[in-house]
Amino acid sequence: MRYFVAVAEELNFGRAAGRLFVAQPSLSRQIRRLEDLLGVALLERSTHHVSLTDAGEAFLGAARRTLGEAGAAVGAARRAAGTEEERIVLGCAACASDLVGPVYRAFSESHPAVGMEARHFDFVDPWAGLKDGSVLASFVWLPAEVLAAEGRFGHVPLLEDGQVAAMPDNHPLAASATLSPGDLAGERRLPNVPPFPGDRARPRFATYEEYFAAVLGGGGIGVVPASAGRRYGLPGMSFVPLKGLPPRTAALAWREPLGDLPPALGAFVRFVQDLHARHRNGGRAGTTGRVPPAKTSVGSLNP
């Protein structure tokens, strides 16, 4: 039911999956199972659009009330037992949250009394709420020079994601196994996304959906992290790995000093720091590393 509410509010399986920190295929399967259980279609799906059916509209209101009442019941029980849940709020820059779901799950397993909430931000705010203080910690895209220069933020790298060229699948370069930046010379180009903290260029696009629609519309070849192509790519697009470009790095950033953060949030930051240290020292972190930039032709990413 919680999965359905997320999809109904986002009207996009990719964004809902990022909000829930689950894989998009898993989310699609869960929604299908719910529809099978109810015996009605809750959503209308097309290659570019998700909308609620009449049954879905009716179910959404009831589902929200049920989830609210269930949450209130859990809170009442925990308050009575003196074990009320601590809660942390984390900002998520565009697509960065898609890479760090295992971090959330690992932390939740070791800290079951701590609830977690994600606030998602589009390209307009690459700081993901960190700079304006709306959140105290966020998943952002590096480079980190701006974070270091600000002096008010700490950060720890989490995962590298190879960059890919995004283009219509009928483009002459779409059949390439890999491309270099030189191969794109002379091609019409869109600005690389996502932006990073401190990027002074005003974004022309707010979301990957807008960006990829421009690619398909002949606006030019784009360059994005490989995970963005897998999550948000539209039918009719190809994503070709780029050699000679450094990978993009997703990181957790927070407001310093660490000791001033709320206890639960401070515990999460230290947990991520420990994962990073173990990975850097050859230990088994299991959550930091690199996403391989596999060549992808999108036609089956939609639910």
CATH architecture of the largest domain: 3-Layer(aba) Sandwich
Instruction: Enter the CATH topology name of the largest domain.
Output: D-Maltodextrin-Binding Protein, domain 2
- Between the first and last Cα atoms, what is the distance in angstroms? 17 Å
Give the DSSP E fraction (strand runs of 2 or more residues).
Answer: 15-25%
Count of individual beta strands: 12
So how many helices? 9
Rg from alpha-carbon coordinates: 20 Å
- Listing every helix as H and every strand as E from the N terminus to the C terminus, the arrangement reads HHHEEHEHEEHEEHEHEEHEE
What's the pLDDT, averaged over the residues?
82
Strand order of the largest sheet: 4-3-5-10-6-11
SS-derived structural category? alpha/beta
Residue runs with pLDDT of under 50 for 5 or more positions: 284-303
Summarize the structure.
The chain has 303 residues and is of the alpha/beta class. 36% of the residues lie in helices and 21% in strands. The strands form 3 sheets. Strands 4-3-5-10-6-11 form a 6-stranded mixed beta sheet. The chain has a 4-stranded antiparallel beta sheet with strand order 8-7-9-12. The chain has a two-stranded antiparallel ribbon with strand order 1-2.
Q: Explain this structure to me?
A:
This protein has a 6-stranded mixed sheet with strand order 4-3-5-10-6-11. Strands 8-7-9-12 form a 4-stranded antiparallel sheet. A two-stranded antiparallel ribbon has the order 1-2. It has helices at 2-10, 13-20, 24-38, 54-81, 101-110, 145-150, 208-216, 226-232, 263-280, and strands at residues 43-45, 50-52, 86-92, 114-120, 137-141, 153-161, 163-168, 222-225, 237-241, 248-255, 289-291, 296-298. The chain is α/β, with parallel strands linked by helices and 303 residues long. Helix content is 36%, strand content 21%. The model is unreliable at 284-303 (pLDDT under 50). Strand 3, helix 5 (101-110) and strand 4 form a beta-alpha-beta unit. It contains 9 helices and 12 strands.
